[in-house]
Give the backbone structure.
Amino acid sequence: MENYAPLLGICAALTVGVVSPGPSFVMIARTAMASTRAEGVSAAIGMGMGGTLFALAALLGLQGILLALPVLFIALKVLGGLYLAYLGFKIWRGAAEPLQIAATEASCERNLRKSLLLGFTTQVSNPKTSIVYASVFAAFMPATQSLGFDVLLLSCVFIIEASWYAIVAVALSSEKPRTTYLRYKQWLDRVAGGVMMALGIKLVASAR
């Protein structure tokens, strides 16, 4: 029972961080408007899986490893930033291309897997998120915790991450946002791609 207060503190702090705009939000928003609602939700699940991986790493002492090996954190920043910039460039380059939404069952399944992987890789490409998780856990974790507490914590992290981005995906895949996106696709994709590239470049620059 005494572990519920730290758990609530961790969940509250992570919720504030999750709803803050960032590359994950940009990617979910663009995926939801440019493809199907199912693909947007699939990407949201990928985001939840990425967040859970960060939480697991924090439980295993990732912060201590990064402090002991700062060159590792620098490498993760550079690689993550380059990946975000690459995703942004792909969106920018394809801004003028018409949408091609697959109709066959096999292609739909491939797109769902692709969206899931895209959500996961976008989430884990920002190593700063690992520091956020490590800091929050260090601030709120009880002195001792059971395996059951750890499992419950990881489950809560997945629910927080996946639920928020699923809400974003469902909201932005509705008719009005999609119609607006289709009308201004070229410019919206350039803005989204530009934001992703800027965030990636900023992450690489911060590695210094």
